[in-house]
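Quick one:
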Amino acid sequence: MKAIVMTGYGGPEKAEIQDLPEVEMTARDVKVKVHAASLNPVDWKIREGHLKRAIQLTFPRIMGQDMAGVVTEVGMRARNLKVGDRVYARVNHLKMGTLAEYVSVEKTDVAAMPESLSFEESASIPLVGLTAWQVIVEIMKLEQGQSIFIHSGSGGVGTFAIQLAKHLGATVTTTASAGNHALLKELGADDVIDYTQSDYAEKGPVYDAVFAIRGDEDLEKSFKLVKPGGIVVGITGLPDDIYAQKRGMGFIARMFLRYANRKITALAAEAQATYRFHALDPSEAQLRRIAELIDSGEIKPIIDTVYPFEDFAKAFEQLEDGHVKGKVVIQIAAESEEKEA
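Output:
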């Protein structure tokens, strides 16, 4: 099968198309013929080695974590799906490899894709949808009438988070350059701040929740925006102690993280707010809930560009440039190929 692989850690030159054997399955897996896969910033960060302490890889390694396609084989312990099902997933990082003609996915990570979407649209959803769901619904527990500030609203996570927060009945403020304001208003944002023209931190501590999609300065400024008793959740940077305990990290590792996070801990204490770090967990059940919201018209995918398989380098170039509205998607197989099969 053809696949886009990392040949080592480094820049774009470390990714290429290779012919590889089809992936092996376990009894808990389903094999999927991939029709489309979307890219996320974590993909190029993994390639460049930023996460090599957390994710151990051998090379060549197939890239990609989001996909949509058709089930071609079902393991003995994966009877929740059947051959021919149209599915989507964000795979566990141990099974990373959606930028290929076939991928093996654990049954708990894959669900029937939204009936109203194409493969390309469905492939754009899993990582951003699960991230937004787990942060806003599971951790923040955002409720009707509350207010939320969402950093970087025009990206993949931001565009989904805005729609989810509005579905829950919250008042939404976000940031974006002027060219993206109309899109974010259409998605439901009540207020969009042009971060190139004003300091959004001047809004003051008026939000029940702040979603820090990017780290560093945005995360630190979040504590100037959150109300006393509110919550800030970040998805980049170092894990907090609660996340470290959840992942079973040892005492020494947790002590190191406490020390490294001391500035954020101090900012949270000064703001009288809670801070949580989160990295998503794949979830079949949550993908089903997300599909229901999409099929009911509450949330729609936002795709910037769809690239053919052979133009993957251009897709990564656009992603790494950082100016993407929603998601960048790579088409692996055309819809007609499924019908021919």
